[in-house]
Amino acid sequence: MKPSDTILVIGSNGQIGTELVADLRQQLGEDRVIAADLSFASGVNTNGPTEIIDVLDGNRLQEIVSKYQVTQVFHLAALLSATMEKKPKLGWRINMEGLFNVLDVARERGIGRVFWPSSIAVFGPTTPRDNTPQNTIMDPSTVYGISKLAGERWCEYYFLKYGLDIRSVRYPGLIGHKSEPGGGTTDYAVHIFHEALRAHAYQCFLNENTMLPMMYMPDAIRATLKLMDTPAANVKIRSAYNLAGISFSPKDIAAEIKTHIPEFQISYLPDFRQPIADSWPRSIDDSPAKADWGWMPEYDLAKMAQDMLHNIKKKQAEAALQL
């Protein structure tokens, strides 16, 4: 990022956006980062400029870009996997029309760089599930995955056709303590920490051996910003880069939590999210990201669990004092 950049973060109040806005404002200053979402709760991203926006409103998007002379856009607004399976047509409209609005505004206004997140949901039942390569079979079986795969193809098209500098990563499941989960299949890995501290028990909606790629939010934010700061010549993949952090199962994370909370108990009641998880990889090969822009995660399971429990415990204590 350059000090002269003005950044628009669409979907700023979500799991990624909440932490991304804070990091960007710390780097560039509060007035250089515009947080945009459907609404704003008290104290969430309100220490700088905010704008109400529906990403389906292209005219409103044009208005905001023009008002602030935006030079970079992070487009994070979307419905996630579990929510989208319940509302497939609405999810498709939000995820695809919203992306088109951003791509078209960026092209028409000459915006320097655009970030759009893809997901491991682009892979499917016949994709190699272990050490899933960058280029492989992509046959998503969820509406969310289909929308992400289509989005990847459109992003690459806009780069090849119009020269739009758009960049993307395929996020694994994301785990963080600063915001509530947004309706994803991997949300159990956030809920479990809250319930471990609150009730010393958790009922998981996936079975105990469901191995999935995950990533702690500080690593995800660092990867996002590192990719966006990489010189354009080094960004050799314009669909989306594989991104890996930690792979673990509910059984693994429960065992790690028990090292901190010995009385913690976990039970399992798989629901409609189990087939979604079963269609995704168990581990990811992200060697192109490491080679092209030097990606390397910092958190393993033990380090992440310790940090999650510390921060959630602190947050719960602060909330109790306010009662």
Description:
This protein starts with 6 loop residues before the first strand and ends with a helix. The protein is α/β, with parallel strands linked by helices and 323 residues long. α1 (15-28) links the parallel β1 and β2 (33-37). 44% of the residues lie in helices and 15% in strands. The strands form four sheets. The chain has a six-stranded parallel beta sheet, with helices on both faces. Strands 6-8-12 form a three-stranded parallel beta sheet. The mean pLDDT is 94. It folds into two domains: 7-173 and 214-242, Rossmann fold, CATH 3.40.50.720; 176-213 and 246-280 and 299-317, UDP-galactose 4-epimerase, domain 1 (Alpha-Beta Complex), CATH 3.90.25. The longest helix has 22 residues, at 88-109.
Q: Descriptors for this entry?
A:
323 residues; UDP-galactose 4-epimerase, domain 1; three-stranded parallel β-sheet; six-stranded parallel β-sheet; 2 domains; 11 helices; Rossmann fold; alpha/beta; 44% helix; globular
